[in-house]
Amino acid sequence: MADITVGVPEVRVAEFRTCQFTGLKVDVAAQALIKANAVAAVVFLALGGLMGLLVALTRWPAVHLLPAEWFYLVLTGHGANVLLFWIIFFEVAVLYFASAVLLNSRLAAPKLAWAAFGLMVVGALMANYAVLRGDSTVMFTSYPPMQATPWFYLSLILFAVGALVAVGIFFATLVVAKEEGTYQGSIPLVTFGALTAAIIAVFTLASGAIILIPTLLWSAGLVSTIDPLLYKVVWWGMGHSSQQINVSAHVSLWYLIAALLVGAKPLSEKVSRTAFLMYILFLQLASAHHLLAEPGLDASWKIVNTSYMMYLAVLGSMVHGLTVPGAIEAAQRRNGYTKGAFEWLRKAPWGHPAFAGMFLSLVMFGFIGGISGVVLGTEQLNVLMHNTIYVPGHFHGTVVAGTTLAFMAATYLVLPLVFQREIMFPKLAQLQPYLFGVGAGGISLFMMGAGTLGVPRRHWDITFSDATIGFQHSAGAFLMMGLNGISAILAAAGGILFIVVVVGTAFFGERIKPGHKLTFPLHSGGAAAASHYGSEATAKLPGTIILVTIFFVSFVLYYFINWKYLSELWLFR
Amino acid sequence: MAVTPPERRIWWNEPIEKVELIWIVIAFFWGLFMFGFMIAWHFIGQQNLSTETYRVDPSNYERKVEAFAKEYQVRDLEGVPVVRPPAGKDVYLLGRLWQWWPVLELQKGQSYRIHLSSIDWQHGFSLQPTNINIQVHPGYEHILTLTPTESGEFGIICNEFCGIGHHTMTGKIFVRAGTAEAPSSTRVAEGTEEGGR
Lengths: 573, 197
Prior knowledge:
The complex is a heterodimer.
Chain A: H1 2-6, E1 16-18, E2 25-27, H2 28-59, H3 68-101, H4 110-133, H5 150-180, H6 189-219, H7 228-262, H8 269-282, H9 299-334, H10 343-346, H11 353-376, H12 382-385, H13 390-417, H14 426-452, H15 475-508, H16 526-531, H17 542-567, E3 571-572
Antiparallel strand pairs in A: 1-2
Chain B: H1 18-44, E1 53-55, H2 58-72, E2 73-77, E3 80-83, E4 90-96, E5 99-101, E6 103-107, E7 112-118, E8 123-128, E9 132-136, E10 140-147, E11 152-158, E12 170-176, H3 185-194
Parallel strand pairs in B: 3-6, 4-7, 6-12
Antiparallel strand pairs in B: 1-10, 2-3, 4-5, 7-10, 8-9, 8-11, 11-12
């Protein structure tokens, strides 16, 4: 029996501090890892965001900044840096926070977590090197038979392995917390949301490995062909579900921010948790909606995978679309803002960048990203906008106006609570979510508009100036691309403000000492929020009911407008 | 609180708020409706993508397209043959770095079996300004029955990134309203009415 104990690792004696604002016990090792991952995230956001601005300025017909070679190269880098590196580094920080900090636990294996971090950094740097060399301009989707250098695929695999290890540490931390009894009952809702994100991440990274490893071998000359259609089917198992990690993560942050800033409790634990669960159960299969315009895939396969699967996941998001504002309304009414249908919303802490960012993210994710996603994922409607710039319009609504804005908002809580620094330039910080939000919303809407008018995605020159057989887009399309460029400048200005505030605060912000009063105060019950238990008691929520009614009517109208467009196309079958 | 464990250990037996329940039911039935509408469109709508697809060797496909173009060529446009196939017949269109080949001339209201494939990389068939967008794969021959419902000049642009010349990859379809010399002219009028049925 002696050999059984050999494998048992020594239990680390963790060093804790107690947060003076929330009363949470914070493992200092977890705190260092959260900081490191958040800093890496912001660095790649800065790099990828700059690349995004260059892309938008090139696509603005009046500016047309970069030459074609650079445009496609920078577009590839933009996708990798913001969609993978910024978001996943930040998500790792969220996972460590939602496990170790929210559960008052020690982090399971800090040394391994540092190794994972190292692997992710190496992968991300290598990918940038491969792209900037100019021989891996294959775009984010990297569809064969177009080929990148082996370094490119290898870098993504390394990054994914690092991320997978980090996810494993999250699971291990949940086990440690349970075993050591650092909390009672079920894990908090925010941690539950993070758990769904982590479970989806495992599936996603597995899909990624299944497709990227053979692609790496093919690129290295060891496998002769990769079937382009098969590649796509498996690739989107990673590509779309990876976006579902983001949704789970940012919805968790909506609940977190609402809890800490207005003292919101979930209306009912059961509903909110089931909604998270639906993401795990249904959204992986819905990745079929990227394949609606492909040859050879059966209509019934498309309908099954994009409908009852996807609509159940959409149902999950629609539920959060009611329960998050509902929880905020209930809390605000309890805080005394009971006049009329909307006093709770008018008197919400709009001057706190975390709240402003979170609420804008909620609204834009629902109205722009959510509705367009369903329309795009409808079997026949997809033909109207497949591979037009409508597609990036949709996912800028989900990933920029939704996820990125929510992550930025959360950062305004991370800086004082984890970095223990006072936010620098508070006026700029207040302005930042609005500037970035309006820019991101504009980018999404104008790209969707241009896509409806036929502008292709990933396209350097919509005037087709070098083509043998020319084509002229409508004046409306040019207008939309111009407005997209202007929105991108707004978003970039918001992005730069974010970087200035975050970097300034992280390195030069005033250190928070005991008794410090924050510029952006948490809800006066901030400490209670983190120590009291509870779901919301029965509450009347007229404001939320009006908001979801507006949402639903917009959804239905937009859905049928697109069927109307479709019915006017040439006939095909 | 969302940041703390639920108050009651057995939270899954708590009743659901009425407002939540109503919203869940509405959202669920809306999803069910959208599911049904996609199926319904196969019966009530005339825009459904064909699934008729064959595996094909790219060089064989290229030969078929060349033979087709030679048979029905009527003139030239910028060095690209303009091809006027008879209605109802098989029409071949080829995507390659960086053109859509050949240029087609079709009759409004007539149906054609359009074959789509690529001989090198993936391309995107994007018919403009009509905005029909279909993915085109090397090695797969995708056949759809297409009926133009309007006359004029239409552009085909590539909307799948296919390398540095991607933005120069264009083609053209002319759609003639005429009843003129085509032997099938008597059928044009009813063809417009009947459409793709």
